[in-house]
Design a protein that fits this description.
11 helices; 2 domains; globular
Length: about 325
């Protein structure tokens, strides 16, 4: 998730085990430890544009890296806090702040190497968006109260409420998946792969992507709290097939390797953008949940197979797109 939420979760975890006189220093240590795992965003290479997306949420987010990551944080902070806190207490707060960083990211749809090095699978439970203001607000209020009142009880209550909200996200996911499966059956399709994920900042509007007979179908599903579910039928696109779409590209080339890396990153849900045949997109994400217009992709040049693909962002923040998203979120009508 975003850095603020990661830091607040880390702070609340540290506060929850802090003594009264340690509450404020535990807040700072936990917050710093909570965002430390995302230092992997600094792993970049000018010559290899895909290195960053390959290593973001990688080994620093693994459950097996937690003790070492917390130790590194504690050693760094020990230089500044050795006169205020014992090393064991400092390590405890760093451990508590760091331990759920990878787990929290795994609840999103981006994918996290939670079990590295035992597994290279990118785990994504799809129960919450990468940015969710309600979840963040719960943690923020809890941390502020715990900080001001020197009270670990407030942090514990905040953590329980955050867990309840995450459980609500899981229930909403089940509802959205049921609606998506009904839609698939009504179309006479059989989903070979189905992914349902929340859209940005909410647990009401969901994006459904499924594969059937070589195509990826994208739809929006709204599951409101006090209204019947609503479906916004979307677009479809031919799923990328290397041998067909990259005919003649040497499979051992740099470009072929980059295509394989991007396909793994995108959980195999990739397609060639029809109007730009040199662009391979991640179909999981779009500015609007019922379109295949991408958020990101790679630009390929098959004429130069030994050059890396370029990683490109295609975010659309136009007023029209924002208004359409809000209409979908509120359950309004979208003209055909």
């Amino acid at each position: 998730m975003d850095l603020l939420t990661q830091g607040l979760l880390g702070a609340a975890m540290a506060q929850s085990s802090a003594r009264r006189q340690e509450a404020r220093i535990a807040t700072g240590v936990g917050f710093f430890a909570g965002i430390a795992a995302d230092a992997d965003i600094l792993i970049q290479s000018e010559s290899d544009p895909l290195l960053n997306i390959e290593f973001h949420r990688h080994f620093t987010h693994s459950l097996f890296f937690v003790p070492l990551g917390a130790l590194l944080i504690a050693l760094l902070l020990w230089l500044f806090l050795r006169n205020r806190l014992s090393f064991l207490r400092l390590y405890l707060f760093a451990l508590l702040g760091y331990c759920l960083s990878g787990v929290l990211d795994a609840f999103t749809s981006y994918g996290t190497h939670l079990l590295w090095p035992l597994s290279e699978e990118r785990i994504a439970w799809n129960t919450i968006s990468v940015i969710d203001p309600i979840f963040t607000l719960i943690l923020l209020v809890a941390c502020i109260v715990a900080f001001k009142k020197y009270a670990n009880r407030a942090a514990r209550i905040g953590l329980v409420l955050a867990a309840c909200y995450m459980s609500f996200g899981w229930l909403q996911l089940q509802r959205a998946e049921n609606v998506a499966q009904t839609l698939i059956a009504d179309r006479g399709h059989r989903a070979e792969t189905l992914l349902v994920k929340p859209t940005l900042g909410n647990l009401v509007l969901w994006r459904s992507i499924y594969q059937f007979e070589g195509r990826l179908y994208v739809d929006a599903v709204r599951v409101g709290l006090f209204s019947e579910p609503r479906i916004y039928p979307g677009e479809s696109i031919a799923k990328f097939v290397f041998d067909r779409d990259m005919n003649g590209l040497p499979p051992t080339s740099v470009l072929a390797a980059d295509i394989a890396r991007f396909t793994r990153f995108s959980a195999g849900l990739v397609a060639i953008l029809p109007q730009q045949p040199n662009v391979l997109i991640d179909v999981r994400y779009s500015n609007l949940p019922m379109t295949v217009t991408p958020l990101w992709g790679i630009e390929m040049n098959p004429a130069q197979p030994d050059q890396h693909a370029k990683y490109m962002l295609y975010r659309d923040s136009s007023r029209q797109t924002r208004e359409q998203f809000i209409t979908l979120l509120l359950g309004g009508h979208i003209p055909d």
